[in-house]
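Continuing from the previous page...

OK, I double-checked the sequence for Heterokaryon incompatibility domain-containing protein against my notes and this is the correct one:
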Amino acid sequence: MNQFRLHVDEFNRRKLTFPEDIQGAFAGITTLLSRSFYGGFLFGLPLLFFDIALCWQPFSCGIRRQPSTDLSAAKASLPSWSWMGWETKGISWAFYPGRPKTISIVQWHSQNFDSSELEIIDGPQIVQALISEAQENEYVVPKGWKRFEYGPLQPPDRNVFQSLEINNHKYFFKHESEPGSIYDCPLPTREAPSIASMDAPLPPLPRNSLLYCRTRKATFHMTKMSRIKKKNGIIVTELYYQLQDQQSHWAGIIQSTAECWHYHHDETGQHLIPSDEVAGDLVIVCESYSVEGVYETFVEWEFEERPKGPTGSKYEYYNVLWVEWDDGIAYRKGCGRVMKSVCDALEPEWIDLTLG
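Thanks. Re-ran it with the corrected sequence; updated structure tokens here:
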């Protein structure tokens, strides 16, 4: 997946004469990968990890791609939920081996604007079932994979969930092609494509640019925070939104897709500056957990207001999308994390979500 991300980063820097052609222009890469990558892709997102793949983050301020026709961006196959719908200088994924663990709790479907028919996206559920199966003692390990047993409680490593109490799994797996990475289960793959199949015509491009699911929605107070810090000798202003519930309890962090990084050279030091406050609708994508204080890439570690557990304890949260609404359809504005305990206490509203 790291190689795929590099392809995305390089490709997404291009200026297309007809932005709505991005899916066709990128089809050669996704089609080639789909012939060996189980499940394939939908608008550049891997179906096997679809829920957490929806939580991609930009490395630069995103600009919505606008079609050259009179169609809306979503109808022109430029959905807001995919990186294909945005111009950015790069994206980050949240599903690399060793990253926080994800629990699929939402059943996603894809849908075309011109049809009421729903097509199920079952990749995350397949992975969940494989994880459960792989934890059985009698599980037969596929060729190329090795199974390892978690040891007794140990200080958590930044790349491995060593603690059985935190991870809830007895075994983890490694593949001979990437011995430095760990997995919760052997991932399904397809046979390598033959030369003849590689010369075959490309399949029709997916047209289902709408997503549908039944999930929960909550509204939070959002305060824009500017974090000024030095990276590799360059001063960077990072923009985030800090979340609070109605009782002003700290709830989480959101990164806007359209505003995130500013580089400049006239500031020094590192500090957080609060500014604008807004109310934001957040919809739950999936559930995750990590190890408290271990993943330094979590920006919320630096917020003093955040309730903190002991280092090495379990940090549970929901991956959420910040959305805005237009004619009953939700469109992505940002992405982030909300503490599970705070969100559950609000008893979020169940909704039928259509995401364009």
